[in-house]
Amino acid sequence: MATVIIPSVMRSATGGVEAVHVPGGTVRAVMHGLVAQFPELGSKLFYDKDQLHHYLALFVDGIEVRASQGLYAQVSEDAEIVIVPALSGG
Amino acid sequence: MASNYRVIGTRPIRPDGYGKVTGKDQYGADTFLPGMLYAKVLRSPHPHAVIKRIDTSKAEAFPGVEAVCTGADFPTVTSDEAIDSGEETISARFMTALSMANHKVYYKGQPVAAVAATSPAVAAEAVGLIEVEYEPLPAVDDVLDAMKPEAPLLHGDLYTERLTGEEKRPSNIAKHIQQSRGEIEKGFAEAEVIVEREFNTQMVHQGYIEPQAATVQASPDGRLTVWTSTQGAWQIRTQMATILDMPEGRIRVIPTEIGGGFGGKFTPYVAPVAAVLSRKTGRPVKAVMKRSEVFQATGPGSGGYIRLKMGAKRDGSIVAAEAFIAYDAGAFPGSPVGAACLTGLSPYTIPHLKIDGYDVVTNHPRVKAYRAPGGTPMGMAVESVVDEIAVELGMDPIDLRLKNAVGPGDRMTNGVAYNSIGFKELLQAIKEHPHYTAPLEGEFVGRGVACGFWTNGSGTSTVHLNFNPDGTVNLIEGSTDIGGSRASMAMIAAEELGLDLSEVRPQVSDTESLGYNDGTGGSRVTYATGVAVYRACKDALNELKSRAAILLEVDEAAVTFSGGIFRAGAAKEIRIQDVIKQLGKTGGPFEARGVSGSLQRAPAFGASLADVKVDPETGKVQILRWTQFQDVGKAIHPAYVEGQLQGGAVQGIGWGLSEEYSFKDGHMLNPSFLDYRMPTALDLPMIDTHLVEVPASDGPYGVRGVGEVCIVPPPGAIANAIYRAVGVRMTELPMKPECVWRTLQTAQQEQVSETSQAG
Hints:
The structure holds two protein chains of two kinds.
Chain A: E1 2-5, E2 19-22, H1 27-37, H2 41-45, E3 46-48, E4 51-52, E5 56-60, E6 63-64, E7 80-85
Parallel strand pairs in A: 1-7
Antiparallel strand pairs in A: 1-2, 3-4, 5-6, 5-7
Chain B: H1 17-21, E1 37-43, E2 49-55, H2 57-61, E3 65-70, E4 82-84, E5 89-91, H3 92-99, E6 104-105, E7 111-117, H4 120-127, E8 131-136, H5 143-147, E9 173-181, H6 184-190, E10 193-201, E11 213-218, E12 224-228, H7 233-244, E13 251-255, H8 271-281, E14 285-288, H9 291-297, E15 304-312, E16 318-330, H10 337-343, E17 352-361, H11 375-393, H12 397-404, H13 423-432, H14 434-437, E18 445-454, E19 461-467, E20 473-477, H15 485-497, E21 504-508, H16 525-552, E22 560-562, E23 565-568, E24 572-575, H17 576-581, E25 592-596, E26 604-614, E27 621-631, H18 638-657, E28 663-664, E29 667-668, E30 687-692, H19 714-726, H20 737-758
Parallel strand pairs in B: 1-14, 12-13, 16-17, 20-21, 27-30
Antiparallel strand pairs in B: 1-7, 2-6, 2-8, 3-7, 4-5, 9-17, 10-15, 11-12, 11-14, 15-16, 18-26, 19-20, 19-25, 22-23, 23-24, 26-27, 28-29
Helix pairs in contact in B: 3-7, 10-11, 11-19, 12-13, 15-16, 18-19
């Protein structure tokens, strides 16, 4: 299962949990699985089901995928996905 | 050490050098087309005002005027969609307002109307005939004032964006960014030394030599062709499509040579105006900005306010850091405060930290990226406080940094783990450098060191290779060459194909001749476009190998390639040039392609080591000696890498000592190079460089981008050197003579006061 690192400002939605293990073969599947576990995250991550908030970046094993495959990026079993808010502006 | 490479790491002459030194290259203002008209923009004299009425009738009647446009001629864009503007995104509606105001102006210099005429002189005279009635509004001139609840609002519909919830009241705070780790109170409770400082910095300009310029031809079928000087042709296309509400595929952007950009040439400030005027007239229209317009109506780098508190244990372990960062975005949201939040404290393994960053709008020009955008002011703050902790602890400043330096596997402040980085190797190199240990003698002299970090970008690049009958190769890339990248790309191709550098001709393409390319920014080109070149070469060699097999009359599996020669056993061989010459006989021409994307980051660390002399009578700071250090991964062309470090250091020195936008009530008081003081050769010693090569995790050769991080540490190094020279901590940029003198006077008065109280 992939490990999703939750940024500190979103941890109120995960009860303070920093790392969440979620199954899924794509970023989309993992992120939807994450929201299924913690519904409060939904509005913080997505405008709608398949559109991430523009102020979020996603790093899969150190590679920022939003600008390339986005939600359809492949995720390995032991991948680490880091949600990074507000990288724009630089 | 013997190099494994034949071309990589050498210092050849750049392939585009001849055009530059002979003055033959075509820059943005050098486009001339039959029947071309000249545009002149009328700009707001007010930093904040409502436009009550515009009367263009006199200008339209003026002889030689072919068209006039105002905001009414532009599509109404209300979307808040985030549009790619090169190194950052900008809301569609705000981006449109940079090209032409509609109903309201938010900064002095914002366009309110424009004229197209048969000559620049006619256009300039006619634009003065346009009558605009304004209702001036109070200007917001200071970032902290702008954050106050009672401050005049720039935008009645701007609400603070934050991840913890929506704001109900409009505000000048466009965004609030938070990063945290550990427990901040616990961290400071553990600290035995705590230093807290406030820093104020000003807007600065990139100071590129060439002003913005664009020529646009609207075709009868509605297509646009744009010739412009830009860091990103594809980004210009995207933005123009948004501003003009038309499909991107109907716009062709042809990049000209570029005379500098440093992050400031991603926005089409004048091209949309030229496009609207060209549509009205059916003729090509050229628009070129003057220097005063460049200062007042393009995007400078952010200034702002930083409050930073850091705590350490007696053994030198930094245990806590808390930062409040408010950056001036100018008229519309989009300061690089996010990068400031990320880059300032990420070099150190701090277990407890809390960072609050605020993107704040004011009635100043809307900022743009400037070389490691957001990094330099925050770098000044962090490196000054780290230096002060070293002094408090009686530690060598490099030893303190070594004790806390991040390495592979440690995490940045945003939680992303570092891959291969060379910060510790860089610090060790400084410690062992002769400059660091050289005696420094004389009165009022001091040596300071500061470090800097920049994430570096990657992004998408597309490269094509095609082949000439003389055995040479055309390398077609889409990355604007702003710092010698054509040379680096050609060197990679020459290395991989076994060709002489003179046999590879690199060219920068337009948006219809090549697949998508991200812009030249974020220190990404040598890294990401280099990967695309490398992959294109591998693609080429696959096909050329099959062609060589035909010419050698062997099975393809029997063919090997090295050093520019295809071989089949010991007896049969053919040079790659000869395979290329005979493509017509072996199946016809082909094109090789390489695309980069989804690369790991290749982060960069740099440092400045400065010796200064301070004149206590005047406060003037003289740079005596300077060495710039950087982990460059692998220097493809060391001379150009050194040049990047030197250029970054000089711009950082300017930011540190003399450059600033001087505002009064939203009016810039110094919009010329006479009054905006950039360093000249007379102000500087030789900038020495020292390259450290710790290979990056991804891509061939271990390349890292080198263009940006070098501007981050100079102000901090100067501030730390001033402290060691005269004993005062500088907390303002620029550290101009009056500022240093005032700080010295204040320190002396405090000393007198303390002495008299003690007595």
